[in-house]
Design goal:
The termini are far apart. By secondary structure, the protein is an alpha+beta fold. The chain has three helices and six strands, in the order αββαβββαβ.
């Protein structure tokens, strides 16, 4: 089983592999009501890309960290796919859905790390 930070790094690489963009890692540690230790939030340009990014994240986490999500929701519409890794929640959004739900501003995060787009 991988450390949480290794899992987060693997998830970020999986998102980048399929051109997920505007990736943010939100540190939720120490927030009593938070559902996980970290959120990883990213955008994708189309429903097909949302699905491809989610697949890539799942593959990277499995291969690099031997981790599988306990639940994945939202694949049927592919506007917002949420993946639950226990200590890490992953959110892959179409830009308009991301703007609407605005998860980045849900809590006062301990730290929000923006990952530069690599394309």
């Amino acid at each position: 089983m991988a450390t949480t930070t290794k899992l987060v790094d693997s998830i970020v690489r999986g998102a980048q592999e399929k051109k997920g963009f505007d990736i943010i890692v939100c540190d939720l540690q120490g927030i009593e009501t938070a559902p996980a230790e970290y959120f990883v939030i990213c955008s994708a340009g189309s429903p097909q890309q949302v699905d491809a990014v989610a697949d890539s994240i799942e593959e990277f986490a499995r291969k690099e960290c031997a981790e599988k999500p306990t639940a994945i929701v939202g694949r049927s519409y592919a506007q917002w796919v949420a993946m639950d890794y226990g200590t890490v929640m992953v959110h892959v959004f179409l830009p308009e859905a991301r703007e609407h739900y605005d998860l980045e501003n849900l809590w006062e995060y301990r730290e929000m790390r923006e990952i530069p787009n690599d394309f």
